[in-house]
Design brief:
Blueprint lengths: L5 H27 L6 H21 L1 H9 L2 H18 L5
């Protein structure tokens, strides 16, 4: 496991937040246009969000601890949503 400084770790958290916000913004335009605008940008933002989330989850013990406090049903729903977003953003990988 790679050891990060606090500064590096906080930068990864910030980058994840930015990627979540970018996905949210692009998704709003994409969904309101019935999938006609910002298709590539939305998929790129989704990939960045998923990659950042997976990376940070592997590094951040607090994220793992949060998962232990969630109900099994909630975990399944979140994982399903993330899996579907990942599949949508990378259809050739499935």
């Amino acid at each position: 496991m790679v050891r990060l400084t606090n500064s590096q770790f906080n930068m990864k958290r910030t980058n994840l937040l930015v990627s979540i916000l970018a996905f949210e913004t692009y998704w709003a335009y994409y969904s309101m246009s019935s999938g006609k605008v910002y298709v590539n940008e939305t998929k790129t933002a989704a990939k960045n969000m998923i990659n950042g989330l997976e990376e940070l989850t592997s590094l951040d013990k607090d994220m793992i601890n949060i998962k232990s406090k969630m109900s099994k049903g909630d975990i399944v729903v979140v994982e399903k949503i993330l899996r579907e977003i990942k599949k949508w953003a990378n259809p050739t990988n499935y």
